[in-house]
């Protein structure tokens, strides 16, 4: 049963709640309700087995009442509260374990950086597993005792009415201070809960070990019926995410340690002489990196326009030029095909796209709603039409004429032959239009919206539930970055090996696209870490429950990205001067060549 739940609820991309209300929604989800109910049932079964094994006063749920109880002993049965409290403890431990699994992402299956043999990994994790189970059992018993002290009479009355049992008035009830100060009872509760949690933790550990085991996919096959099992097909196909992650992990490993399999990646098809293997692998890796870049750009623009003045033309040009820079180098690789893109949790963009007709991933932030209550006065002043009577109208010092500075996000087509930058879209005069006056109904609804907003903002509980958790949006944005880390490692190691192993020059045709994609992503990552809410250093998690590697994925991605670019520049050196790229990309690449980045 536990193995079935692990197989049903596991994920390789953790679900990160960006607010308390989102976390509450996960806990109250019907799917989570089924999971909690199954854990409660399993907890009751294990607690019943423990009660039978303990024996004595814990063995049965009922016993014949004594004559001193005021009932006929031959006909009446009394409730054995020691057995009953043990069964309820199993249900409570199962419920708390299921809820903690949602809070700490215990269904998340991480991939280790250093691969180990299964036995050695299990042996090394067993001591910490026992310690974690004992500690969690201690806290669960403490919470259970408090709950049973205040609410224990409710299930006790229900079970007595259901099974037609009576309460023995000659013994102290366990939902009292005298009854709960039984050291033998507390010890049995702690041992039973620890055994139950240890069983679940061992099952989860074994599941993670076997699921994340390294699998070697064949690069190419001589038989057509086995082509769907090859590495290029598995990476580019619509496969389960665990299979896609295993394929990317195998790509990162073969690019480092297998010269024979690298030669298959660089090989040409017969007949035809086309590098299908390299094209499929590089196309999917660049698609993953481009998708992450677009998400970072959209998130940065969302944060920049949320209540702060931001140049519309600059933001539009930056986004448009970045999209051009990303897509221009990969037009030959990005042929139409179904792709399985990683998804970012919608709560990351929830605050900025409510009521919008287009997603921030598809629509540039060039036309914000100035009537929105979230539009700042400075933003309205920037977008207001210029007054012709103003002494600054039409001059170079006009605040409506933007000065363009070199950006990494531009492409070679942005610079002209004579060196003069093209005119900014914001500086192009447009015919003045009379703004349409909103109707009375629209004004009334807008005023009501403002009143409701201010009313809710004054309520502490509402703000506590809806405020963003610290760094949660950043963690959710990089939740699937393990795939991007493997894509970066695979591409960089393959490019490095192609310097001496690529006999047909298949990698050289995609080298400008790879370098441009990495440089744009590196700039986007740097901009993200400069945001006020983004931490620059990983924080060690104080909790031993679950796995906290997903909280440091963005730091691992930043280090892997910089290492990948250095790996290519160190290998090719001055030969990169012959690679066609924009002046800004070349300037940025020169910093890596001079080890200044």
Automatic annotation (TrEMBL):
User: Bias category Polar residues: which stretches?
Assistant: 410-419
Q: Provide ranges: composition bias, Low complexity.
A: 322-331
User: Which GO BP terms apply?
Assistant: mRNA transport; nuclear pore organization; protein transport
Q: Which Pfam families match?
A: Ndc1_Nup
Q: Which InterPro entries match?
A: Nucleoporin_prot_Ndc1/Nup
User: Transmembrane stretches, by residue range?
Assistant: 33-54, 84-104, 189-211
Membrane topology term reads: Multi-pass membrane protein
Highest taxon, organism lineage: Eukaryota
Spell out the residue ranges making up region: Disordered: 308-338, 410-438
Q: Where in the cell is it found?
A: Nucleus membrane; Nucleus, Nuclear pore complex
Q: Name one GO molecular function term.
A: protein-macromolecule adaptor activity
Q: What's in the keyword line of the UniProt record? A: Membrane, mRNA transport, Nuclear pore complex, Nucleus, Protein transport, Translocation, Transmembrane, Transmembrane helix, Transport
Q: Name one GO cellular component term.
A: nuclear pore transmembrane ring
Instruction: Give the protein family.
Output: Belongs to the NDC1 family.
Summarizing the function annotation, the protein's role is: Component of the nuclear pore complex (NPC), which plays a key role in de novo assembly and insertion of NPC in the nuclear envelope. Required for NPC and nuclear envelope assembly, possibly by forming a link between the nuclear envelope membrane and soluble nucleoporins, thereby anchoring the NPC in the membrane.
Q: What is this protein called?
A: Nucleoporin NDC1
Q: Provide the species name.
A: Dissostichus eleginoides
Q: What is the lineage of its organism?
A: Eukaryota, Metazoa, Chordata, Craniata, Vertebrata
């Amino acid at each position: 049963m536990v193995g079935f739940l692990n197989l049903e609820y596991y994920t390789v991309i953790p679900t990160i709640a960006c607010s308390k209300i989102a976390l509450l929604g996960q806990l109250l989800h019907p799917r989570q309700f089924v999971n909690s109910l199954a854990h409660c049932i399993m907890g009751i079964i294990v607690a019943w087995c423990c009660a039978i094994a303990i024996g004595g006063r814990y063995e049965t749920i009922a016993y014949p009442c004594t004559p001193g109880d005021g009932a006929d002993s031959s006909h009446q049965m009394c409730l054995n509260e020691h057995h009953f409290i043990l069964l309820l403890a199993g249900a409570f431990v199962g419920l708390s374990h299921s809820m903690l699994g949602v809070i700490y992402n215990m269904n998340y299956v991480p991939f280790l950086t250093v691969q180990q043999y299964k036995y050695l990994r299990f042996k090394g994790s067993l001591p910490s597993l026992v310690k974690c189970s004992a500690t969690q059992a201690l806290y669960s018993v403490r919470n259970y005792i408090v709950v049973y002290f205040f609410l224990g009479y409710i299930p006790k009355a229900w079970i007595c009415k259901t099974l037609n049992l009576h309460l023995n008035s000659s013994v102290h009830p366990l939902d009292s201070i005298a009854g709960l100060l039984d050291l033998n009872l507390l010890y049995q509760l702690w041992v039973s809960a620890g055994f139950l949690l240890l069983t679940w933790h061992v099952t989860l550990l074994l599941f993670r070990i076997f699921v994340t085991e390294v699998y070697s996919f064949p690069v190419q096959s001589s038989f057509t019926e086995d082509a769907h099992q090859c590495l290029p097909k598995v990476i580019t196909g619509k496969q389960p995410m665990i299979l896609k992650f295993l394929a990317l992990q195998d790509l990162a490993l073969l690019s480092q340690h297998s010269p024979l399999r690298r030669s298959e990646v660089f090989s040409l098809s017969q007949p035809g002489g086309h590098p299908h293997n390299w094209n499929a692998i590089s196309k999917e890796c660049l698609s993953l990196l481009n998708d992450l870049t677009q998400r970072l750009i959209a998130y940065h623009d969302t944060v920049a326009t949320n209540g702060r003045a931001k140049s519309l033309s600059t933001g539009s040009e930056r986004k448009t030029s970045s999209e051009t820079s990303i897509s221009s180098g990969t037009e030959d690789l990005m042929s139409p095909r179904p792709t399985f893109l990683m998804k970012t949790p919608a709560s990351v963009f929830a605050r900025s796209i409510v009521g919008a007709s287009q997603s921030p991933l598809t629509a540039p932030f060039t036309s914000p709603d100035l009537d929105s209550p979230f539009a700042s006065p400075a933003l309205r002043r920037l977008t207001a039409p210029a007054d012709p009577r103003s002494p600054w109208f039409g001059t170079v010092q006009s605040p409506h004429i933007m000065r363009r500075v070199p950006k990494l996000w531009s492409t070679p087509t942005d610079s002209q032959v004579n060196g003069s930058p093209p005119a900014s879209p914001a500086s192009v005069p447009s015919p003045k239009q009379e703004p349409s006056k909103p109707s009375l109904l629209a004004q009334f609804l807008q005023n009501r919206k403002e009143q409701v907003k201010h009313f809710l903002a004054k309520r502490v509980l509402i703000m506590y539930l809806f405020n963003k958790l610290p760094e949660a949006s950043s963690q959710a944005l990089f939740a699937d970055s393990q795939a991007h880390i493997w894509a970066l490692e695979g591409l960089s190691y393959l490019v490095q090996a192609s310097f001496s192993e690529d006999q047909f020059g298949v990698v050289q045709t995609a080298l400008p696209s790879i370098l441009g994609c990495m440089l744009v992503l590196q700039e986007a990552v740097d901009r993200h870490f400069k945001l006020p809410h983004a931490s620059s250093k990983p924080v060690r998690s104080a909790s031993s429950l679950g796995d906290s590697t997903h909280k440091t994925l963005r730091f691992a991605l930043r280090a892997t990205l910089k290492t990948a670019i250095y790996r290519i520049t160190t290998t090719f050196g001055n030969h990169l001067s012959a690679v066609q790229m924009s002046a800004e990309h070349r300037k940025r690449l020169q910093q890596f060549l001079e080890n200044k980045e």
